[in-house]
Amino acid sequence: MRYVIYGAGAVGGVIGGRLHASGAEVVLIARGDHLDAVQANGLRLLTPEGEELHHVPAVASPDALDLTDDDVVLLTMKGQDTVAALDALTAAAPPGIAVVCAQNGVANERSALRRFAGVYGMIVWLPAGFVTPGTVLQHAAPVAGSLDVGRYPTGVDDRAARISADLRHAGFASQPDPAIMAAKYRKLLSNLGNALDALCDGAFQSPLFGAAQAEGEAVLAAAGIEVRSRDEAAVAHVEIRDVPGHAWAGSSSRQSFARGTGTIEADFLNGEIVLLGRLHGVPTPVNELLQREARAAARAGLGPGAVKLSDLEARLES
Fold first, then answer.
1. How far is CA 53 from CA 38, 41, 45, 50, 136, in A?
2. Of 140, 155, 178, which residue is a domain's last?
3. Spatial separation of the C-alpha atoms in residues 122 and 180, rounded to whole Å
């Protein structure tokens, strides 16, 4: 079984690097200067315990690979890039290939299932970061992260069990989970603060974060969606630690602002709650505000923490 890490930036780089180091067959799909650096010099992985270099094969797109039904493709790009990635994968992959959505949000699996039968959800608790082309950060040790996996929409099978076992062998906590989407909806609620974290300093101490989560809880209850309880959602302890010379930079959305990508995942996090609220008649003013302001700030190229919390609160009240 070969692992194809599609979107091998920070999270994908850590997963791919760890799997490769454990002896698994791995190929990365990356782009731009990052791809060039990995092809020329290997993938440099910086961890709290030291530096590693992994000479992992890397290509620019799925059509550069001879994909087979035995391959497992891990989608590790942001939600806003999923559909374009799946379109490219559909053109190059056989219908029996496995697609694992190792991403935040809950919309990616549905998009994948339109194109492939073998779709899996993965809940990702993995503090990672991008430094320079060819270099990524793993901000946890000795457990590199927690990556439970299950069939979409429900269930587990032999392939899910094999993926989970390979991840454990690579240094991650991982278990097959037959109700993976219930776990991912619980993770979605925690991710409702990502846009706020990108916009403002001190975001997770702000009442706006709690208000966004309360809206999310109300919306999911109204929609009748199963959500893992807080107690049941307790994962294997993943300790965020600084890498020598590199402090933890915050949520993936805050890192997107720091890198000036021009996009943010808010449409698939806060926007999921907004969508469900509109479908089920539940007001979601806080999530609407965070989605709108994060999108505008990303387009404007604002850096992390560029907005004052007091200004954001005032816009909610106006």
1. 10, 9, 6, 10, 11
2. 178
3. 7
User: 22: helix, coil or strand?
Assistant: coil
CA-to-CA separations, 204 to 17, 212, 214, 256, in angstroms, rounded: 31, 11, 14, 17
What size, in residues, is the chain? 318
Q: For residue 315, what pLDDT is reported?
A: 86
Strands 43-47 and 71-75: unpaired
Whole-number Å distance between alpha carbons of 167 and 173: 7
Q: 81-123, pLDDT tens digit by residue?
A: 999 999 999 999 999 999 999 999 999 999 999 999 999 999 9
3-state DSSP call for residue 60? coil
Strand pairing class (71-75; 98-101): parallel
Domain extent, residue 306, equals: 185-318
Residues 86 and 202 in one domain: no
Contact at 8 Å (CB) between 146 and 233?
Answer: no
Residues 277, 222 within the same domain: yes
Mean pLDDT for the chain overall: 95
Instruction: Report how far residue 212's alpha carbon sits from residue 165's, in angstroms, rounded to the nearest whole number.
Output: 36
119, 144, 178: which is the final residue of a domain? 178
218: left (phi over 0), alpha (psi -120 to 50) or beta: alpha
Q: Map residue 250 onto helix, strand or coil.
A: coil
- Please name every residue paired with 132 in a beta bridge, in sequence order, or none if there are none: 135
**Six-digit token string for 33:** 């200067």
Residues 229 and 264 in one domain: yes
pTM over 0.85: yes
Domain count of the fold of the chain: 2
The amino acid sitting at 17 is G
